[in-house]
Amino acid sequence: MKRLIVIWCCCLSLTTTAQQLPVLCYHNITTAGQHKNDLLHIDRDQFDRQLKTLSDSGYHTILPDEMVALMAQHKPFPPRACIITFDDSHDVHYSVAAPLLQHYHFKGVFFVMTVTLNKPHYLSVANVKALSDEGHVVASHTWDHPFPAGYKDWNKELVTPRQQLEKITGRPVWYFAYPFGAYNDSIIMHVKQAGYKAAFQLNRLPVAGKELYTLRRLMVDGRWSGAQLLHEMALYGTQ
Ligand SMILES: [Zn+2]
User: Fold this and answer.
1) Where would I find the NodB homology domain in this sequence (predicted)?
2) Distance (Å) from CA 227 to ligand 1 centroid
3) Residue 192 Cα, ligand 1 centroid: separation in angstroms?
4) CATH number of domain containing 86
């Protein structure tokens, strides 16, 4: 019996080492059949079903400060923890996603590109402030969402958006998401220099030695049922 327990403990510890914290990435949320579900769109009711499945399965959300602190201390992530993120500043992040998150007692991370602030169909300054005041994390997604070759002015893309979001929220902005999930060594260096503590990409594995600036996210497909989402999250932890 003793031997069995030792073997089981070893397996558990290996599993824990391989397991990464699931960080989910959503883009646009649609209502009333405006767009078919795909990688960049999810119907409001489908999103609700996915969140309900997470909640019913015992998942809770943590925020990047906790993730980064645990990584720094080489401590395991809490069981059944995940992070839920939203890219591209769509106004529905405030009007549709935030109330659903609230319903399930989840908190989210909103990566905002500042060029769209107050534009039609995008988050307003007041929305961003409200998200932050409600306990969500407001983070940066550049000024105008460039491709890697399009970072002409590092200040304009990385430093000014951070300062602007800090001014709007009254809170520090520590986190960044690469547009298109795309990065290179030069972009990582400038993201660090701009004062960000960590940066998120999309589906690729984190780069060894640069984990904090290549944090992985799972792009959630709007076609996934709640059960499929759980399945993909389990796979994500083993790949
Ligand atoms: Zn984006």
Assistant:
1) 80-239
2) 26
3) 19
4) 3.20.20.370
